[in-house]
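Input record (one chain):
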Amino acid sequence: MENAVPVDFMDLLGPRPSEELRLLAAIELYREGKLSLGKAAEFAGINVREFLYELRKRNIPLNYDVEEAQKDIEVVEGLL
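The corresponding structure, as predicted from the sequence alone:
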């Protein structure tokens, strides 16, 4: 079976190209709003904290709108 990535480009992906490709795909799917933060992290094979780090490192904003913030506020208020 052939590599999915041409040999000339393998150095761009680092020592673990399949993991890097999964991460890049997860980031793009998250950026497009096709995956939630948790599902994108799961897709990438890392935890949410690590995924947040990768987003920050690449200057990718969180998909977090006013409605989500209001829901979070209501949940927190319900805990008090």
